[in-house]
Amino acid sequence: MAQVAKIPVIDISAEGDQTQVARDLVEAAIEHGFVYIRNTGKDIPIAAVEEAFDVARRLFDAPLSEKEACTIRQNNRGWSAMNYETLDPANQRVGDFKEAFNFGEFINAKAQQPLPPAIAADEASISAFRDYCYHLTLKLNTLLGIGLEVTPPTFFTTSHLRSAGPSGTTLRLLRYPPLSSLPPSAQPTDVRAGAHSDYGSLTLLFRLRGQAGLEILLRDGTTWSPVPVVPEGTEDDPAPPILMNIGDLLAYWTGGLLRSTVHRVVFQEGGNKVAGEAGDGTRYSIAYFCHPFGGAELGVVPSERVKGYRGEGAKGNPYAERRVMTADEHLQMRLKASYAQLYEGKE
Ligand SMILES: O=C(O)CCC(=O)C(=O)O
Ligand SMILES: [Fe+2]
Q: What is the pLDDT of residues 87-107, one digit of tens each?
């Protein structure tokens, strides 16, 4: 049985000089690509997280016709049905065993996409939750800038400001059914979310105590290691930590220095168990995928550490050889690979 992943836990809630916290964050982003952010309720109120999970329950319990009316489009907003998305097409015989709902931007607390009537009354609270996540990711982007000694340290933050223009930023609610609820054709080795890395700059992930399933691929490229919801030392916190991970865009932007780690969600009927967690019930999670504004050019990051990086992740992505891609081009490239049906024949 693989050991649970040794992902560092950091606390970004203190006032004052943030240099050390920023350095710790950067080291975790380089070494693991994942880091736990303690949830003290300061950046995102605990009640807001609980409320977001309540909305998810209401949404996924809504009649099928309500969800179908909001089916996901090429703008990456809306409902994605069971088995619709296939995150690891090369290795999956069937699509992911999950349902998802993506929320794009809100303007004046109003969604810019159809919502199922079952959650119509929740529009303002979803918008508020998205805002909390937005502000937390701005803070994390600034800490990454400080930790990498980028000039200026707000380099990443500036390209993530809403005022810079629309972005691919997405709040995603997820529900994974238990294996026992599925037809016999579903097998324990099927996945709830296939092996993938995230597309954006960074992701915030909210999970519920006791609900197992997330695993990361270790550096050896073969070992899957479970990621506990409640890591050691956070048992008495008011809520489980928020799991942050680096996405492909930030890995690309930093020439491979920051690590975009492959992860997946499994049923976990077999091996990899975490004490106090079970894989056999319905599982909910909430992901906030943060992206720069669409026109942001992913050029050279003004940081000596980034420029000087020549490690394993740097191969195939030297600055000299590539043309500067924008954030939107990067996202489109990644989406096409995992929604074959949605993009087939539509260039
Ligand atoms: O549900 C989870 O724990 C992870 C979901 C995930 O990796 C994703 O949606 O990108
Ligand atoms: Fe992911």
A: 888 888 888 888 999 999 999
Q: What pLDDT sits at residue 279? A: 82
CATH of the domain at 95: 2.60.120.330
Report residue 115: phi and psi, to 5°: -120, 145
Q: Choose among 186, 185, 204: nearest CA to 280.
A: 186
State how far the Cα of 121 lies from the Cα of 345, in Å rounded to an integer.
38
pLDDT tens-digit readout, 264-297: 999 875 556 788 888 889 999 999 999 999 999 9
What distance in angstroms lies between residue 212's CA and the mean position of ligand 1's atoms? 12
> Which two structure tokens, joined as six digits, stand for 279?
């894989």
pLDDT above 70 covers what percent of the chain?
91
Using the mean position of ligand 2's atoms as its centre, give its distance from the Cα of residue 271 in Å: 21
Could you tell me if residue 66 is inside a domain?
yes
- Say if 226 falls within a structural domain: yes
Amino acid in the structure at residue 10: I
Model confidence over 186-216: pLDDT tens digits?
A: 888 888 988 999 999 999 999 999 999 999 9
Contact residues for 240 (Cβ-Cβ < 8 A; gap 6+): 39, 206, 207, 208, 209, 229, 230, 234
Q: How far is the CA of 324 from the centre of ligand 1 (A)?
A: 29
Q: Is the pTM of this model over 0.90?
A: yes
- For 242, the domain range is 9-343
Domain assignment present for 2: no
Name the domain count of the chain.
Answer: 1
Ligand nearest to the CA of 212: 1
Residues with CB under 6 A from ligand 1: 172, 174, 193, 198, 205, 207, 214, 263, 265, 285, 287
Whose CA is closest to atom 3 on ligand 1? 214
In a domain, 206, yes or no: yes
The complex scores an ipTM of: 0.99
